[in-house]
Amino acid sequence: MLRSSTTWLLVAQRLGIALITLVIVSFAVFFATQLLPGDVAQILLGQAATPEAVAGLRTAMGLDEPAMLRFIHWLTGLATGDLGVSYVNHMEISTLIAGRLANSLELAGVVAALSTPVALCLGILAAMYRGTLLDRAISVATIVVISVPEFMVATLAVLIFAVWLGWFPALSYGVDVDSIGAMLRAYALPVISLSFVVSAQMIRMTRAAMIETINTPYVEMALLKGASRTRMVLVHALPNALGPIANAVALSLSYLVGGVIIVETVFNYPGVAKLMVDAVATRDLPLIQSCAMIFCFSYLSLTTLADMIAILSNPRLRR
Q1: Which of 98, 97, 40 is nearest to 275 (CA)?
Q2: Phi-psi region of 84 (alpha: psi -120 to 50; beta: other; left: phi over 0)
Q3: Each residue of 176-217: pLDDT tens digit?
Q4: For residue 105, what are the contacts with CB-CB under 8 A and spacing of at least 6?
Q5: C-alpha torsion sign, points 268, 270, 271, 277
């Protein structure tokens, strides 16, 4: 179906806002890392280093330049794909992140593939049968999961499935994965922990979006004309709730950005979040900045995609 010029103008505006937001976030990330305590040059050389050696290393690393100039150089490199060199490992940051990013994307992809269909089905079912025992059971379960922080969910998963039942290993890294079954066992706990948190948020937001659409006059009219509850939801309500549901999915999956940091740390999973935590401990500023920008870009991409889907699926903007 054709879209009006207003639709594409709104899409272009949303993309422009996302780009401006990314620049503002990069500014905040860069200068926030400058507030980390400790002198990077002093940390790298050790306490026994002479002031001359520390000053020489600061000059070699460009740390004696004005902060704004260093930010411009870093932002220019970021835009061209040059992430710089790690202070600690003396390697290209793009090389360090490449393997870890693949692991994080693999974990996020598995979690999204498992949690999204289940959460959407449960959210739609809860909206279809709101007020029933099924709706109450789903609502109580989601509230319980949402009320528990990610690190507690991960800790409980280790306690139950690794310690008490002995089904899965407590750590993902360092476990022999010579078969598909071993690989599934190694990555089961991180996937379970993240799926619980992501699904709970998605179920509640999907339920709210569907109930709001079901309560509209045209959907109620379809029900009065004899349409079954299933047809009313799937044919009349669901297509018009696509925008809010896309927002619900995107916002829920954005919890992967924060939740994956905790889960990768708890389970020693070799992803970008674990790499960032290690970089903070060693004051590896370029690596911290690059990892933070990856998380910010992922979050912004999800929310922007959800907004674009909401705009394109809005029937009032069609010709």
Answers
A1: 97
A2: left
A3: 555 566 666 767 788 888 888 788 878 888 888 788 777 777
A4: none
A5: positive
